[in-house]
Amino acid sequence: MAKAAKKKAKASRKPARVAAKPKAAKKSGKPAKKAAPKVDPLNRNQYTAITPMLTVRVIRQAVSFYTKVFGLTVRGIMEGPQGPMHAELRLRDGTLMLSPESAEQQSFTANSIGRTPVMLYLLVENAEEVFKRALAAGAQVVMPIADMYWGDRAGMIADLDGNRWMIATHKANPTEAQIREAIRKQMARTAAQAREVAAAATAGSESEY
C-alpha cells in the first residue's frame, strides 16, 4: 500500500510541472524592446563620398548666386548669433556646403587670399546658357567656352567670391587615339602662339634702338 501511495504522489506531481510551463512561455511572449536604428557611419542618405565646402563672404549672397545661375536648391541654412553660419545646397545627387569668411577661424575666401588652387567642374545641359547667366550675375571670365579634347564643351568663370567653376556640357565620346591627336594639335598651337609672342617681343625691343 505504501509503494502504491508513493507512485500516486509522483504521478500527481508530474502534471504540476507540466502546468508550470505555460507560465514560462507567457513570460517569453512579452514584446521585445525595439533595437535603436543603426546609424550609417557614411551618412549615405545625405551625402556622397566627397562634399565640397566653400568659404564665402556673405552666405545669402552666395546662395542667391548658386541657385539662380547654377540651379542648385537650398537644403538648409543654419542661423547663428551673427547671421548664417552654414548652408547646404543640392544639385542632382551632389551637395555643396557654404561657410562664412572668418578671420578668427582662419577661414578666407579665394578673393581674400588672392587665388584658389581649387576648381569645381560643373556639368550642365547647356554650358553656353549657364556661362552667360554667370557673367550677368557678376562672375568673371577665366577661360572662354570652347570644345575640349576630352569631349566636353566648357569654359571657366570665377564667382563673386573668387571660386573657380568649369561649366561644361558633354558633347562627344572620343577614342584614346582621337584624344592623343587633339592634345598634339593643341600643344602645337600653343607652341606656335608662344613663338609669335616671343618674336613680337624681340621685334619691339629691337625697334627701340
**Contiguous helical run count:** 5
Largest sheet: 4 strands, mixed
Q: Oligomeric state of the chains?
A: single chain
Round the mean pLDDT to the nearest integer and report it.
87
Give your account of this protein's structure:
The protein is an alpha/beta fold and 209 residues long. It has five helices and eight strands, in the order αβαβββαβαβββα. Strand 3 and strand 4 form a beta hairpin. Helix 2 packs antiparallel against helix 4. The longest helix is centred in the last third of the chain and has 32 residues.
Write the layout of secondary structure elements.
Layout: H1 2-28, E1 53-56, H2 59-70, E2 73-80, E3 83-91, E4 94-100, H3 110-113, E5 119-123, H4 127-136, E6 140-147, E7 152-158, E8 164-170, H5 176-207
Summarize the structure.
With 209 residues, the chain is an alpha/beta fold. It is built from five helices and eight strands.
Features:
about 210 residues, alpha/beta, 4-stranded mixed β-sheet, 5 helices
